[in-house]
Design brief:
Elements: E1 3-7, H1 13-25, E2 29-33, E3 47-53, H2 61-68, E4 79-87, H3 96-105, E5 109-110, E6 115-119, H4 130-142
Parallel strand pairs: 1-2, 1-3, 3-4, 4-5, 4-6
This protein binds flavin mononucleotide (FMN).
């Protein structure tokens, strides 16, 4: 599946989730850090997945900055969705939904609802089963079985 997973990560957990999603998406999918990715290289019909850890209730500045720099129609014709990594707590805030709104504001069509993966503490590790869940999500996205 022609897909790009764009991410940023402080301690590597979000990168591992991005890589697991790409494994599920299958051949033709790429994983790239936001600061190295130019949205102008996306082709119509391609799937874009953007992920960030939640830091202080929001995405990392590198992800927010990248999204804010997109022109209003930069993602027209692109299917997109998002994910975040977070701790299990009442006060986790949100990054995936904020990313999803920004993707839509840039003209993307929502390919699936935003989702979250959990870490044990600030530096991780990811909870058991999260990488498997991420890989499954990628496979479902490739098969268009999630809405
Ligand atoms: C400065 C800082 C702020 C954080 N704020 C939140 C938060 O508001 N909500 C939350 O659920 N997790 C928060 N966390 C935990 C992160 O979600 C966790 O570090 C992240 O998921 C790990 O992913 P990474 O290895 O890709 O950076 C915070 C972590 C740091 C270092």
């Amino acid at each position: 599946m022609e897909a790009v997973v764009v991410y940023e990560s402080n301690f590597g957990n979000t990168r591992k989730v991005a890589e697991a999603i790409a494994r599920g998406l299958g051949p033709g999918s790429h994983v790239v850090e936001a600061e190295k990715f130019n949205a102008g290289h996306l082709k119509p019909g391609q799937l874009l997945i953007v992920g960030s850890p939640i830091n202080a209730w929001r995405p990392l500045p590198e992800i927010s900055g990248w999204l804010e720099a997109l022109a209003p129609d930069a993602l027209s014709g692109i299917r997109a969705t998002s994910f975040d990594t977070r701790v299990k707590s009442f006060f986790h805030g949100d990054a995936a939904k904020k990313i999803a709104h920004a993707l839509e504001a840039a003209g993307a069509e929502q390919a699936a609802a935003p989702t979250s993966y959990f870490v044990e503490g600030k530096e991780g590790p990811l909870l058991d089963g999260e990488l498997e869940r991420a890989e499954q999500w990628g496979a479902q996205l490739a098969a268009e079985k999630v809405g």
